[in-house]
Structure formats: C-alpha cells, structure tokens
Amino acid sequence: MATVERPGQETRGRMSRWGWSGAWGGGALLALVGLGAGARADPMATGPLLTAVLIGAIVAAYQFPLAVRPRTKVYMASVPYYLLAALVAPPLAAAAAGLGALLGELAVRRRRGTYPSDIAREVARRVPVELLGAGVAHLAPGGTAHLLALVGAGVALGVGDILTAPLVLTPQSGEPPWTVVRALAREATAPEAAQYLLGLLGALAAARVPWAPLLLVPPTALVYGAFRWLLEQQRATEALLRREREAYARAEAAMRVRDDFLLTAAHELRTPLTVILGHGAIVEGRLERGEPIAPAALGAHMAPLGAAARRMLTTIEGMTDAADVRMGQALALRAEVVDLGDVARAAAAVARGRASGGGAGRGRRRS
Fold it and tell me: What are 66's strand-pairing partners?
C-alpha cells in the first residue's frame, strides 16, 4: 500500500477535534457493523483473535515505510491485508481492513500531517478493495481451484490498491491520477509482489496450522530490509551520478574558460606586440645601417615600447581576473587614474609604427 506525506509539516495544530472524533466514531461503527455481518455470514470463520492480530500487524506496518518516490511511501501492510482476505470471511475482512487502515493512519497522523479527509479516503478505498480480494479468495473451497483463487486474490488486491491510490495521493500531491498509477506500477510492484507472495505462502500454511501466518514475521522483516537496502543503494547511485554530471559540467565550463582565454589573449595581445615589434624593427634597422641614434630619438621609440609592454601586462591581468570570475572565484578590484592623452598618444604611436613597419618586415626578412 502507498501513501504520501504532506510536505514540510510534522504536526498539524489545525486538526479539528470534531474531525478526529468523527473519524474514530466512524471507524468504530464500521468495525461493529463488519464484525456483526461477518459473524452472520460465517460463524465458523477464523477466530476474532487472529483478526485482531492481523489488524495490529497493519497498524505496526505503518511504522516501517519504504520511500519509493519523493514524498511517496510504501508500507509493509500488504501481507496482513492479504491474510485477512484469504483467512477471514469477506464482510469481516473488509471491516477489519478498514479498521486497521483507520488505526494505522491515526498512529502516524502527527508525523505525516494528514487531515481527517485524507484518512477517510484511505479507509473508504481500503474497504471495497479488501472486500473484492476476499470475495475472490473464497470462490473455491479447496484443491487447485482454491490455489488459483488465492493467486487471483493477490492480483485483485494489488491491482485494486494501485488503481484506487489516486483517490488518496492525487489530492495530497497534486499529481494527475494516471501519473500516480504509472509511478506506483513501476516503482512499487516489486515490494508489493513480494508481500503478496509471502501472504500466499502464509495462507497455504494456515490451512494446516491456523497460527502458521505468525511465522511470516521474520521473512517479512527480511523483505523490508532487502528493499530498503536496495532503495538506499539506488539513491546513493543517483547521488553519485548527479555529482559526476556536476563535475563534468564544471570541467566543460573550465575548458570553455580556457578556450575563451586563449582566444582573447591572441586578439588583445596582437596590438601591443605590433607596437613592440614595429619600434624594435625601426631601431634595429637603423643600427644595422650604422646610423647614429640620438638619445631623444631612442627615447621616442622606447616610450611606446614601455607603454605597449605595460598594456600587455594589464591585458593579461584583466584576462586572468575574468577567468577567475567565470570560475566562481572572488575578484579584487582596484581603482586607477587613466590619462586619455596617453591612450591617444599610444594609439598614434601604434599607427606610426604600422606605417613605418614595412621596415620591420624587411628587417626580419633580411635577418
């Protein structure tokens, strides 16, 4: 059986006292009517003590949920529900199932924050599903036909549980009914099938020893532990895959930053390098031709060289800062005064260097 916990609430202070009183009163009335109908329908049915034990098992199962989906849990109550259907007369089984669902829901209402309407819907769907399963289980009294009837009862209970689950889950989760049915059919079928198989074995054993179903407690606990371990492994695997995807995304982002850095470096460093190469080629050409260079002329060439070198350094620092920002690192900012005249003169020097840079190219070819 599956249910949903309302998000973000441990307790509900707004629960109506009259709502809970009505739920308890309705459950008691349902139990009395069912017990009376069961006694009239089958006076020799399995004793009330076994029925009470199975009701207690349903209530206890609410304390051991399996989280198959976010906010959706499966309880190990299918075994006692099946045993009620197989071993108890249909009217009594339906009443006992409704009472067990009521008591189980009330036992966890504070933790799950359920409303009286949520509990009423769970009880209202549980009774007809149990009545259907019990009716199928009692179609044949013995032999192979009885075995087939028990198998059919498990199928009826499982299918009925999944098909009626949206009556409870859709108002709580807001998901469409067909989405709820598909999700439960995909994710809850395995633990539910294991429980019904255990219930079938217990019903067959009860044909010889009435209290044999009590021996199902250890294997049911093992099934619960196994499926809980599998679900934990599945969640751990999903978390590992999620971390790997995030690491891969970070690596891709780092590669994009590297490529952008190289592209920006190739573009931004070309201009100052042109200045340096241009003025260096002019000085080199005059030296090769043996022409004297006056200090003032040499200074006129060295000033643009220094400015271009400083521009390269500034550009490299800027690209490094930009890469740090894209990688999520903190950026240290500093304020500087920029002389627009120096910028204009540097641009003019670049232009002059390119205009006279034919000598640079010829100088390189001569060397």
Answer: 74
Q: Which residue shows structure tokens 């051991």?
A: 64
Cβ atoms within 10 A of the Cβ of 245, count? 10
- Measured CA to CA, the distance from residue 292 to residue 312 in angstroms comes to 30
The dihedral over CA atoms of 302, 304, 310, 312, expressed in degrees to the nearest 10, equals -120
Q: What is the CA radius of gyration of the chain?
A: 40
Largest CA distance in the chain: 129
Mean of pLDDT values over 89-97: 93
CB atoms within 10 A of CB 125: 21
133-139, Cβ contacts within 8 angstroms, sequence gap of 24 or more: 133/81, 133/82, 133/85, 133/93, 133/157, 133/160, 134/84, 134/85, 134/86, 134/88, 134/89, 134/90, 134/93, 134/94, 135/90, 136/85, 137/85, 137/86, 137/203, 138/89, 138/90
Q: Where are the domains of the chain?
A: 2-216, 269-366
d(CA 347, CA 351): 6
pLDDT in tens, 103-119: 999 998 888 788 888 89
* Distance between CA atoms of residues 216 and 79, nearest Å: 9
Decide if 185 contacts 163 (C-beta within 8 A).
Answer: no
Q: For 2-216, CATH number? A: 1.10.1760.20
Q: 161 near 2, Cβ under 8 Å?
A: yes
pLDDT at 232 over 60: yes
At 89, the amino acid letter reads A
- CA 82/CA 197 separation, integer angstroms: 10
> What is the Cα–Cα distance from 78 to 76, expressed in whole angstroms?
6
DSSP string, 245-260: HHHHHHHHHHHHHHHH
Contact criterion met (CB below 8 Å) for 118 and 171: yes
User: Taking the CA of residue 338 as centre, how many other CA atoms within 13 Å lie in the half-sphere pointing to its CB?
Assistant: 10
CA atoms within 13 A on the CB side of 8: 1
151 has a pLDDT exceeding 90: yes
C-beta separation of 93 from 129 below 8 A: no
Q: Which of 222, 203, 223, 221 is nearest to 213 (CA)?
A: 203
